[in-house]
Specification:
about 80 residues, alpha+beta, Ubiquitin-like (UB roll), 7 strands, about 30% helix, globular, Beta-grasp_dom_sf, ThiS/MoaD-like, nucleotide-binding, Molybdopterin synthase sulfur carrier subunit
Length: about 80
């Protein structure tokens, strides 16, 4: 059975891609590998996805952070304000 990693998308990214995605994953991935997998599935949003921070289990992640099935993953776009 193929495993999936659930990814939550916030702000305008959530409006473009949907608030929740399920990304196929045969093995555990790093946060950077997961980002590349999502970009491959949604290439038209590459620039949006590249600028996002990634959180794993409610903590900001680096590209090397391991992502396991069952983890809570969030893609958080940069915010600007005045």
């Amino acid at each position: 059975m193929e495993s999936k990693i659930k990814v939550l998308c916030f702000a305008d990214l959530g409006e473009k891609l949907g608030r929740s995605l399920e990304i196929p994953a045969e093995t555990d991935l790093t946060a950077a590998e997961l980002r590349q997998r999502v970009i491959k599935l949604y290439p038209q949003f590459q620039s949006d996805l590249q600028s996002c921070l990634i959180a794993v289990n409610q903590e900001y992640a680096t590209g090397e952070t391991m992502v396991n099935t069952g983890d809570e993953i969030a893609f958080i776009p940069p915010v600007s304000g005045g």
